[in-house]
From TrEMBL:
GO molecular function, one term: phenylacetyl-CoA 1,2-epoxidase activity
EC number of this enzyme: 1.14.13.149
Swiss-Prot/TrEMBL keywords: Oxidoreductase
The organism's place on the tree of life at top rank: Bacteria
Matching InterPro entries: Aromatic_CoA_ox/epox, Ferritin-like, Ferritin-like_SF, PaaA, PaaA_PaaC
Short name of any one Pfam family annotated for the protein: PaaA_PaaC
Keyword Oxidoreductase carried by entry: yes
Record-linked Gene3D superfamilies: 1.20.1260.10
Protein name (database record): 1,2-phenylacetyl-CoA epoxidase, subunit A
Organism: Nocardioides aquaticus
Length: 330
Protein backbone atom coordinates (compact mmCIF):
# COMPACT_ATOMS: atom_id res chain seq x y z
CA UNK A 1 0.00 0.00 0.00
CA UNK A 2 1.35 3.47 -0.78
CA UNK A 3 0.63 6.68 1.10
CA UNK A 4 -2.82 7.92 0.12
CA UNK A 5 -3.68 11.41 -0.97
CA UNK A 6 -6.60 13.05 0.75
CA UNK A 7 -8.69 12.87 -2.41
CA UNK A 8 -11.54 10.45 -2.78
CA UNK A 9 -11.11 7.29 -4.89
CA UNK A 10 -12.61 7.04 -8.38
CA UNK A 11 -15.62 5.18 -6.93
CA UNK A 12 -16.34 8.28 -4.84
CA UNK A 13 -15.69 6.49 -1.55
CA UNK A 14 -12.91 8.09 0.54
CA UNK A 15 -10.64 5.78 2.55
CA UNK A 16 -11.45 5.85 6.25
CA UNK A 17 -9.04 7.11 8.89
CA UNK A 18 -7.77 3.61 9.80
CA UNK A 19 -6.92 2.88 6.16
CA UNK A 20 -5.16 6.20 5.80
CA UNK A 21 -3.15 5.62 8.96
CA UNK A 22 -2.19 2.11 7.81
CA UNK A 23 -0.97 3.49 4.48
CA UNK A 24 0.98 6.23 6.28
CA UNK A 25 2.56 3.73 8.70
CA UNK A 26 3.49 1.41 5.83
CA UNK A 27 5.20 4.26 3.97
CA UNK A 28 7.20 5.17 7.07
CA UNK A 29 8.12 1.51 7.69
CA UNK A 30 9.45 1.22 4.12
CA UNK A 31 11.54 4.40 4.67
CA UNK A 32 9.67 5.98 1.76
CA UNK A 33 8.78 9.63 1.65
CA UNK A 34 5.57 11.33 2.74
CA UNK A 35 4.69 14.07 0.25
CA UNK A 36 2.59 17.22 0.82
CA UNK A 37 -0.65 15.83 -0.67
CA UNK A 38 -0.41 12.54 1.24
CA UNK A 39 -2.58 12.02 4.27
CA UNK A 40 -0.63 12.39 7.54
CA UNK A 41 -1.54 12.38 11.22
CA UNK A 42 -2.04 15.89 12.56
CA UNK A 43 0.71 15.39 15.15
CA UNK A 44 3.18 14.39 12.42
CA UNK A 45 2.31 17.59 10.54
CA UNK A 46 2.60 19.84 13.60
CA UNK A 47 5.91 18.22 14.66
CA UNK A 48 7.32 18.91 11.20
CA UNK A 49 6.06 22.51 11.24
CA UNK A 50 7.73 22.98 14.65
CA UNK A 51 11.07 21.52 13.59
CA UNK A 52 11.27 22.98 10.07
CA UNK A 53 10.15 26.43 11.27
CA UNK A 54 12.79 26.40 14.03
CA UNK A 55 15.34 25.31 11.50
CA UNK A 56 14.36 28.10 9.07
CA UNK A 57 14.39 30.71 11.86
CA UNK A 58 17.86 29.50 12.90
CA UNK A 59 19.22 30.09 9.43
CA UNK A 60 17.78 33.60 9.30
CA UNK A 61 18.72 34.62 12.86
CA UNK A 62 22.08 32.90 12.25
CA UNK A 63 22.90 35.60 9.70
CA UNK A 64 23.24 38.17 12.48
CA UNK A 65 26.31 37.05 14.47
CA UNK A 66 28.45 36.70 11.35
CA UNK A 67 26.81 39.61 9.53
CA UNK A 68 28.13 41.71 12.42
CA UNK A 69 31.65 41.37 10.94
CA UNK A 70 30.99 42.04 7.24
CA UNK A 71 31.92 45.73 7.48
CA UNK A 72 35.04 44.90 9.50
CA UNK A 73 36.45 41.97 7.53
CA UNK A 74 40.27 42.12 7.49
CA UNK A 75 40.61 41.97 3.67
CA UNK A 76 38.52 42.21 0.51
CA UNK A 77 38.84 38.44 0.05
CA UNK A 78 37.54 37.71 3.55
CA UNK A 79 34.70 40.20 3.07
CA UNK A 80 33.61 38.55 -0.20
CA UNK A 81 33.72 35.09 1.41
CA UNK A 82 31.73 36.21 4.45
CA UNK A 83 29.13 38.06 2.36
CA UNK A 84 28.59 34.95 0.23
CA UNK A 85 28.26 32.75 3.30
CA UNK A 86 25.72 34.98 4.99
CA UNK A 87 23.72 35.13 1.74
CA UNK A 88 23.76 31.32 1.63
CA UNK A 89 22.18 31.24 5.10
CA UNK A 90 19.37 33.47 3.80
CA UNK A 91 18.87 30.98 0.94
CA UNK A 92 18.70 28.08 3.41
CA UNK A 93 16.04 29.92 5.38
CA UNK A 94 14.01 30.42 2.21
CA UNK A 95 14.15 26.75 1.14
CA UNK A 96 13.07 25.76 4.62
CA UNK A 97 10.21 28.28 4.84
CA UNK A 98 9.04 26.97 1.46
CA UNK A 99 9.19 23.36 2.73
CA UNK A 100 7.18 24.43 5.77
CA UNK A 101 4.57 26.18 3.60
CA UNK A 102 3.80 22.81 1.95
CA UNK A 103 2.38 21.82 5.35
CA UNK A 104 -0.25 24.55 5.19
CA UNK A 105 1.33 27.42 7.13
CA UNK A 106 2.31 30.75 5.61
CA UNK A 107 5.67 32.41 5.86
CA UNK A 108 4.00 35.52 7.30
CA UNK A 109 2.52 33.40 10.10
CA UNK A 110 5.90 31.81 10.84
CA UNK A 111 7.73 35.14 10.87
CA UNK A 112 5.18 36.59 13.29
CA UNK A 113 5.57 33.58 15.58
CA UNK A 114 9.33 34.10 15.57
CA UNK A 115 9.28 37.82 16.38
CA UNK A 116 6.60 37.30 19.03
CA UNK A 117 8.75 34.59 20.68
CA UNK A 118 6.20 31.84 20.00
CA UNK A 119 8.65 29.70 18.00
CA UNK A 120 12.27 28.94 18.80
CA UNK A 121 15.56 29.14 16.92
CA UNK A 122 18.88 27.51 17.71
CA UNK A 123 20.39 28.49 21.07
CA UNK A 124 23.82 28.97 19.47
CA UNK A 125 22.86 32.27 17.86
CA UNK A 126 22.21 33.91 21.22
CA UNK A 127 25.95 34.15 21.86
CA UNK A 128 27.92 37.20 20.70
CA UNK A 129 30.72 37.29 18.11
CA UNK A 130 33.55 39.17 19.79
CA UNK A 131 36.43 38.83 17.32
CA UNK A 132 37.04 37.92 13.67
CA UNK A 133 38.22 34.50 14.82
CA UNK A 134 34.56 33.85 15.71
CA UNK A 135 33.75 33.86 11.98
CA UNK A 136 36.16 30.93 11.57
CA UNK A 137 34.97 29.17 14.71
CA UNK A 138 31.33 29.44 13.65
CA UNK A 139 32.26 27.96 10.27
CA UNK A 140 34.30 25.15 11.81
CA UNK A 141 32.25 24.22 14.89
CA UNK A 142 28.74 25.61 14.31
CA UNK A 143 28.49 24.61 10.65
CA UNK A 144 30.30 21.38 11.59
CA UNK A 145 27.61 20.61 14.18
CA UNK A 146 24.95 21.60 11.64
CA UNK A 147 26.37 19.12 9.11
CA UNK A 148 26.36 16.28 11.68
CA UNK A 149 22.74 17.06 12.43
CA UNK A 150 21.58 17.74 8.88
CA UNK A 151 23.22 15.01 6.79
CA UNK A 152 20.89 12.39 8.36
CA UNK A 153 17.98 14.81 7.76
CA UNK A 154 18.53 14.37 3.99
CA UNK A 155 16.81 11.00 4.67
CA UNK A 156 14.01 12.44 6.78
CA UNK A 157 10.58 11.00 6.02
CA UNK A 158 9.00 14.25 4.74
CA UNK A 159 9.96 14.78 1.07
CA UNK A 160 10.25 18.59 0.82
CA UNK A 161 12.34 18.79 4.01
CA UNK A 162 14.74 16.03 2.92
CA UNK A 163 15.21 17.57 -0.52
CA UNK A 164 15.89 21.03 0.95
CA UNK A 165 18.49 19.43 3.22
CA UNK A 166 20.49 17.98 0.32
CA UNK A 167 21.34 21.39 -1.05
CA UNK A 168 21.75 22.95 2.39
CA UNK A 169 24.27 20.26 3.37
CA UNK A 170 26.39 20.81 0.27
CA UNK A 171 26.66 24.49 1.13
CA UNK A 172 27.21 23.85 4.84
CA UNK A 173 30.18 21.61 4.16
CA UNK A 174 31.69 24.39 2.06
CA UNK A 175 31.04 26.78 4.97
CA UNK A 176 32.74 24.46 7.39
CA UNK A 177 35.84 24.26 5.23
CA UNK A 178 36.03 28.04 4.91
CA UNK A 179 35.88 28.30 8.72
CA UNK A 180 38.63 25.73 9.11
CA UNK A 181 40.74 27.48 6.46
CA UNK A 182 40.34 30.85 8.20
CA UNK A 183 41.33 29.37 11.56
CA UNK A 184 44.30 27.47 10.12
CA UNK A 185 45.52 30.69 8.46
CA UNK A 186 45.28 32.50 11.80
CA UNK A 187 47.04 29.62 13.58
CA UNK A 188 49.99 30.08 11.18
CA UNK A 189 50.06 33.81 12.03
CA UNK A 190 51.20 35.67 15.14
CA UNK A 191 50.95 34.62 18.82
CA UNK A 192 48.16 37.17 19.17
CA UNK A 193 46.18 35.57 16.33
CA UNK A 194 46.66 32.09 17.81
CA UNK A 195 45.41 33.38 21.17
CA UNK A 196 42.36 34.88 19.43
CA UNK A 197 41.52 31.50 17.90
CA UNK A 198 41.92 29.64 21.20
CA UNK A 199 39.79 32.20 23.06
CA UNK A 200 37.08 31.89 20.41
CA UNK A 201 37.10 28.07 20.51
CA UNK A 202 36.88 28.20 24.32
CA UNK A 203 33.71 30.30 24.07
CA UNK A 204 31.99 28.33 21.28
CA UNK A 205 32.77 24.71 22.20
CA UNK A 206 30.08 24.25 24.86
CA UNK A 207 27.31 26.15 23.03
CA UNK A 208 28.15 24.04 19.93
CA UNK A 209 27.55 20.84 21.95
CA UNK A 210 24.20 22.27 23.08
CA UNK A 211 23.05 22.67 19.46
CA UNK A 212 22.11 18.96 19.40
CA UNK A 213 19.45 19.52 22.05
CA UNK A 214 19.03 18.10 25.56
CA UNK A 215 20.32 14.63 26.51
CA UNK A 216 18.10 11.84 25.16
CA UNK A 217 16.62 11.15 28.61
CA UNK A 218 15.38 14.75 28.76
CA UNK A 219 14.28 15.08 25.14
CA UNK A 220 10.48 14.98 24.99
CA UNK A 221 10.29 14.80 21.17
CA UNK A 222 13.02 12.36 20.12
CA UNK A 223 11.19 9.05 20.56
CA UNK A 224 8.16 9.97 18.43
CA UNK A 225 10.24 11.87 15.86
CA UNK A 226 12.51 8.81 15.44
CA UNK A 227 9.49 6.50 15.11
CA UNK A 228 8.14 8.72 12.33
CA UNK A 229 11.54 8.97 10.61
CA UNK A 230 11.58 12.75 11.04
CA UNK A 231 14.80 12.41 13.04
CA UNK A 232 17.17 9.60 12.04
CA UNK A 233 19.52 9.79 15.06
CA UNK A 234 19.08 10.84 18.67
CA UNK A 235 20.53 14.05 20.13
CA UNK A 236 23.23 12.15 22.06
CA UNK A 237 24.24 10.02 19.06
CA UNK A 238 24.80 13.13 16.97
CA UNK A 239 26.64 14.94 19.78
CA UNK A 240 29.01 11.97 20.07
CA UNK A 241 29.61 11.95 16.33
CA UNK A 242 30.43 15.66 16.44
CA UNK A 243 32.92 15.25 19.29
CA UNK A 244 34.65 12.32 17.55
CA UNK A 245 34.86 14.35 14.35
CA UNK A 246 36.13 17.53 16.04
CA UNK A 247 39.00 16.06 18.11
CA UNK A 248 41.35 15.25 15.18
CA UNK A 249 40.42 18.53 13.49
CA UNK A 250 41.36 20.44 16.68
CA UNK A 251 44.68 18.57 16.73
CA UNK A 252 45.32 19.48 13.09
CA UNK A 253 44.59 23.13 13.88
CA UNK A 254 46.70 23.11 17.06
CA UNK A 255 43.90 24.28 19.37
CA UNK A 256 42.82 22.75 22.67
CA UNK A 257 39.18 21.82 23.23
CA UNK A 258 38.24 23.21 26.68
CA UNK A 259 37.22 19.93 28.33
CA UNK A 260 39.48 18.10 30.82
CA UNK A 261 37.15 15.11 30.59
CA UNK A 262 37.74 14.65 26.86
CA UNK A 263 39.59 11.33 26.41
CA UNK A 264 39.56 8.46 23.93
CA UNK A 265 37.70 5.43 25.25
CA UNK A 266 39.12 2.41 23.40
CA UNK A 267 36.43 0.11 24.76
CA UNK A 268 33.59 2.23 23.35
CA UNK A 269 35.53 3.28 20.27
CA UNK A 270 34.50 6.88 20.99
CA UNK A 271 35.71 9.87 22.98
CA UNK A 272 34.33 10.39 26.46
CA UNK A 273 33.50 14.01 27.15
CA UNK A 274 31.91 16.21 29.83
CA UNK A 275 28.33 17.45 29.69
CA UNK A 276 27.65 21.09 28.88
CA UNK A 277 25.92 23.24 31.48
CA UNK A 278 22.32 22.26 30.81
CA UNK A 279 20.97 25.00 33.13
CA UNK A 280 22.63 27.53 30.84
CA UNK A 281 21.07 25.81 27.81
CA UNK A 282 17.53 26.01 29.22
CA UNK A 283 18.04 29.65 30.27
CA UNK A 284 19.18 30.55 26.73
CA UNK A 285 16.30 28.63 25.11
CA UNK A 286 13.82 30.42 27.40
CA UNK A 287 15.13 33.82 26.28
CA UNK A 288 17.81 34.74 28.84
CA UNK A 289 20.92 34.23 26.70
CA UNK A 290 23.38 37.10 26.18
CA UNK A 291 21.87 38.19 22.84
CA UNK A 292 18.25 36.88 22.69
CA UNK A 293 16.62 40.32 23.01
CA UNK A 294 19.02 41.90 20.51
CA UNK A 295 18.52 39.13 17.91
CA UNK A 296 14.73 39.32 18.03
CA UNK A 297 14.63 43.14 18.08
CA UNK A 298 16.85 43.20 14.99
CA UNK A 299 14.71 40.62 13.17
CA UNK A 300 11.52 42.49 14.06
CA UNK A 301 12.98 45.80 12.81
CA UNK A 302 14.11 44.18 9.53
CA UNK A 303 10.64 42.69 9.05
CA UNK A 304 8.92 46.03 9.69
CA UNK A 305 11.38 47.93 7.48
CA UNK A 306 10.75 45.40 4.69
CA UNK A 307 6.96 45.97 4.64
CA UNK A 308 7.18 48.30 1.61
CA UNK A 309 9.12 45.66 -0.38
CA UNK A 310 6.44 43.05 0.30
CA UNK A 311 3.69 45.56 -0.59
CA UNK A 312 5.46 46.51 -3.83
CA UNK A 313 6.05 42.84 -4.82
CA UNK A 314 2.39 42.01 -4.13
CA UNK A 315 1.18 45.01 -6.17
CA UNK A 316 3.54 44.08 -9.02
CA UNK A 317 2.32 40.45 -9.05
CA UNK A 318 -1.32 41.66 -9.05
CA UNK A 319 -0.62 44.08 -11.93
CA UNK A 320 1.05 41.32 -13.96
CA UNK A 321 -1.85 38.95 -13.38
CA UNK A 322 -4.33 41.64 -14.49
CA UNK A 323 -2.27 42.21 -17.66
CA UNK A 324 -2.31 38.47 -18.45
CA UNK A 325 -6.08 38.31 -17.81
CA UNK A 326 -6.73 41.37 -20.04
CA UNK A 327 -4.56 39.75 -22.76
CA UNK A 328 -6.43 36.43 -22.68
CA UNK A 329 -9.85 38.21 -22.66
CA UNK A 330 -9.08 40.29 -25.79
N1 LIG B 1 18.21 25.51 20.54
O1 LIG B 1 12.80 17.19 22.41
P1 LIG B 1 13.97 17.93 21.85
C1 LIG B 1 22.78 26.51 11.10
C2 LIG B 1 14.25 22.65 22.03
S1 LIG B 1 21.21 26.58 11.69
C3 LIG B 1 16.94 25.89 20.80
O2 LIG B 1 15.26 17.22 21.78
P2 LIG B 1 13.74 17.96 18.96
C4 LIG B 1 23.50 27.72 10.76
C5 LIG B 1 13.34 21.84 21.14
O3 LIG B 1 12.93 22.61 20.04
C6 LIG B 1 21.02 24.97 12.37
N2 LIG B 1 15.98 25.03 21.19
O4 LIG B 1 13.55 18.55 20.43
C7 LIG B 1 22.83 28.88 10.40
C8 LIG B 1 12.24 21.47 22.09
O5 LIG B 1 11.38 22.58 22.30
P3 LIG B 1 9.89 22.65 21.66
C9 LIG B 1 19.72 24.76 13.02
C10 LIG B 1 16.32 23.72 21.23
O6 LIG B 1 13.08 18.89 18.02
C11 LIG B 1 23.55 30.05 10.19
C12 LIG B 1 12.98 21.28 23.39
O7 LIG B 1 14.19 22.00 23.29
N3 LIG B 1 19.50 23.34 12.93
O8 LIG B 1 23.26 25.46 11.01
O9 LIG B 1 13.37 16.53 18.91
C13 LIG B 1 24.94 30.06 10.30
C14 LIG B 1 13.27 19.81 23.66
O10 LIG B 1 14.20 19.27 22.70
C15 LIG B 1 17.61 23.26 20.93
C16 LIG B 1 18.29 22.78 13.12
O11 LIG B 1 17.33 23.43 13.42
C17 LIG B 1 18.58 24.22 20.58
N4 LIG B 1 19.85 23.88 20.31
O12 LIG B 1 15.33 18.02 18.71
C18 LIG B 1 25.61 28.89 10.62
C19 LIG B 1 18.24 21.29 12.86
N5 LIG B 1 17.64 21.93 21.08
O13 LIG B 1 10.07 22.81 20.19
C20 LIG B 1 24.90 27.70 10.84
C21 LIG B 1 16.85 20.72 12.83
C22 LIG B 1 16.42 21.56 21.47
O14 LIG B 1 9.24 21.34 21.99
N6 LIG B 1 16.34 20.46 14.16
N7 LIG B 1 15.62 22.64 21.56
O15 LIG B 1 9.26 23.84 22.28
C23 LIG B 1 16.60 19.33 14.85
O16 LIG B 1 17.34 18.45 14.41
C24 LIG B 1 15.91 19.15 16.18
O17 LIG B 1 14.83 20.05 16.24
C25 LIG B 1 16.85 19.38 17.41
C26 LIG B 1 16.01 19.26 18.69
C27 LIG B 1 17.93 18.32 17.43
C28 LIG B 1 17.49 20.75 17.38
Amino acid sequence: MTAQTQETRPDGEGPDEAELLAAFDATIARHDRIEPRDWMPEKYRSTLVRQIAQHAHSEIIGMQPEGNWITRAPSLRRKAILLAKVQDEAGHGLYLYSACETLGVSRQELTLKLVEGRQKYSSIFNYPTLSYADVGTIGWLVDGAAICNQVPLCRTSYGPYGRAMIRVCKEESFHQRQGFELLSTMMRGTDEQRAMVQESVDRFWWPALMMFGPPDDDSPNTEQSMAWGIKRDTNDELRQKFVDMSVPQAEALGVTLPDDGLVWNAERGHHDFSQPDWDEFYAVVKGSGPCNAQRIAHRRRAHEDGAWVRDAATAFARRQQETVQRGSAS
